[in-house]
């Protein structure tokens, strides 16, 4: 069922969207976190997830319900919303996880979809095969083919207004993920989980997570709602959203709590190691670590689960606000400083700056240059593309100093963007806040901009007047551009340090 997802605001490949869930008549704002509710173990009551944490959607396991003697009949008679006491949208999983864990399950795709429909699920899931990372190519292709057959069957099952997931598999093969995305989109099913990411997430292989998401999205197209299945750690939400993920599911809030693990946006802490609680949630404001440790096992687990949920929902609110403000990548940069694997993930994302650039808005509040990675942001790339369309005339000075009447035109040069005519100084992203002590990558990016300008204007003479650029950047400047240190220019040219 297409047409249920509407994009509102974008930043990088991240977006705020609206997922209409017709069966329960609710609209879920994305990016959204779906707490995983184990039908047997309700660490936090679903009604509290809704009223206290703002959960608009949750996920529970349709397969476990179907196999449970006590819950199956209850789910069929009163329906899932009454059974769980939750009025938002409910997604159900199919047992694919159990299939991956235990090797076999006792149900077919039409049977489990019909069951999910009968118990009142809003979004159901067929049984796909989650091929693990680094599987052999033959296995990945064979299992993907089986998954695709099941998606074809799924679309023939009568499921009324229930939306149906079309999982995207393909192991760590980008071309298979892309083909899987294209096929899944072609089924006309509604929501698109990128599957089998959990082993990558558990191994902190965030760069590989970005590669499979990006590949899947190449096939799915920008308009498809994407669920990064199994991603529940708030430290990577910003990165995954910036890559274009819309839905997350957290079993982590409860599973980590059971092991006395305390989630933060920078990683995971053991409660035993904490002398202070670095968080503003109601649990952490009201307790010391020692008080939490002194609670009974059940109470401690519930308290930690609540903290874990507060942190996770707060991070999603922060992400949505960043999308609105247009500084999502600055949030990702901050998160990338929390763990080296996150930095790998951010760098992998920037490898796809060309794709990010397509959805990145042309104008935002401000560009903060915060790290060497900032030089690879889509805004820099877009400026370099724009340089090919500008028309310099005569002998053009590209300078970090003021205007110089000896040249026909004096353009400004600002790392990492490179050159631009002065009249563009007040346009985004050239209004950027750039550190005084910038980095080598930033100068190199500016030099690449000069190259783009020189190559697209072969008949124009250029001179670069720079303030102590490193050799690695100057080496990138084409030979036909004259290079002079700014301090060697005439005295009257050095007055204006602001370049205005
Ligand atoms: Zn807290």
Index terms:
500 residues, alpha/beta, TIM Barrel, 2 domains, six-stranded parallel beta sheet, five-stranded mixed beta sheet, 16% strand, disordered C terminus, binds zinc ion
Explain how this protein is built.
- The protein is of the alpha/beta class and 500 residues long.
- The protein folds into 2 domains: 5-353, TIM Barrel (Alpha-Beta Barrel), CATH 3.20.20; 364-493, no CATH class.
- It has helices at 46-51, 62-67, 69-78, 80-84, 96-102, 109-118, 137-154, 174-186, 198-202, 206-220, 237-242, 252-258, 282-286, 289-294, 297-325, 328-336, 340-350, 353-359, 378-387, 440-456, 471-474; strands spanning 5-11, 14-21, 26-30, 32-37, 57-61, 89-93, 123-124, 163-164, 192-194, 226-228, 247-250, 261-264, 267-270, 395-399, 409-414, 418-420, 461-466, 482-485.
- Strands 6-5-4-11-10-9 form a 6-stranded parallel sheet. It has a 5-stranded mixed sheet with strand order 16-15-14-17-18.
- α21 (471-474) links the parallel β17 and β18 (482-485).
- α8 (174-186) runs parallel beside α10 (206-220) and α12 (252-258) runs antiparallel to α15 (297-325).
- Residues 494-500 have low confidence and may be disordered.
- It binds zinc ion.
- The site of zinc ion has 6 residues, from α13 and α15.
- Zinc ion binds next to α13 and α15.
């Amino acid at each position: 069922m297409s047409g249920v997802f509407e994009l509102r605001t974008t930043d990088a490949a991240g977006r705020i969207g609206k997922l209409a869930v017709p069966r329960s008549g609710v609209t879920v704002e994305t990016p959204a976190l779906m707490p995983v509710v184990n039908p047997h173990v309700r660490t936090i009551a679903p009604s509290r997830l809704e009223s206290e944490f703002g959960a608009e959607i949750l996920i529970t396991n349709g397969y476990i319900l179907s196999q449970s003697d006590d819950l199956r009949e209850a789910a069929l008679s009163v329906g899932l919303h009454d059974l769980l006491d939750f009025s938002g949208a409910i997604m159900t999983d199919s047992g694919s996880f159990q299939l991956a864990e235990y090797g076999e399950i006792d149900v077919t795709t039409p049977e489990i979809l019909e069951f999910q429909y009968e118990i009142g699920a809003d979004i159901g899931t067929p049984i796909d095969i989650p091929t693990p990372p680094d599987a052999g190519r033959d296995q990945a292709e064979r299992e993907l083919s089986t998954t695709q057959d099941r998606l074809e069957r799924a679309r023939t099952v009568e499921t009324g207004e229930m939306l149906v997931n079309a999982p995207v598999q393909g192991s760590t093969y980008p071309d298979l993920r892309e083909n899987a995305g294209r096929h899944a989109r072609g089924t006309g099913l509604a929501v698109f989980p990128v599957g089998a990411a959990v082993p990558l997430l558990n191994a902190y292989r965030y760069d590989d997570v970005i590669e499979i998401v990006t590949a899947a999205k190449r096939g799915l197209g920008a308009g498809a709602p994407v669920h990064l299945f199994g991603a529940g750690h708030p430290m990577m939400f910003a990165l995954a959203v910036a890559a274009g993920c819309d839905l997350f599911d957290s079993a982590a809030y409860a599973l980590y709590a059971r092991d006395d693990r305390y989630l933060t946006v920078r990683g995971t802490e053991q409660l035993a190691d904490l002398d202070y609680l670095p968080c503003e949630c109601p649990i952490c404001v009201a307790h010391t670590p020692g008080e939490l440790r002194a609670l009974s096992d059940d109470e401690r687990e519930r308290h930690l689960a609540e903290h874990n949920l507060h942190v996770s929902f707060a991070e999603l609110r922060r992400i949505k606000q960043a999308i609105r403000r247009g500084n999502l990548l600055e949030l990702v940069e901050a998160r990338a400083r929390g763990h080296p694997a996150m930095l790998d993930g951010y760098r992998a994302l920037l490898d796809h700056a060309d794709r990010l650039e397509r959805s990145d808005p042309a104008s935002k509040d401000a560009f903060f240059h915060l790290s060497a990675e900032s030089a690879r942001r889509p805004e820099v790339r877009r400026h370099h593309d724009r340089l090919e369309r500008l028309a310099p005339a005569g002998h053009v000075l590209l300078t970090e100093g003021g205007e110089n009447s000896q040249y026909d035109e004096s353009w400004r040069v600002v790392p990492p963007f490179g050159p631009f005519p002065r009249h563009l100084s007040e346009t985004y992203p050239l209004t950027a806040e750039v550190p005084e002590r910038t980095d080598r990558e930033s100068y190199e990016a500016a030099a690449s901009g000069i190259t783009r300008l020189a190559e697209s204007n072969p008949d124009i003479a250029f001179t670069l007047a720079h303030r102590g650029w490193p050799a690695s950047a100057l080496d990138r400047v084409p030979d036909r551009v004259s290079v002079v240190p700014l301090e060697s220019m005439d005295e009257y040219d050095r007055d204006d340090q602001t370049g205005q």
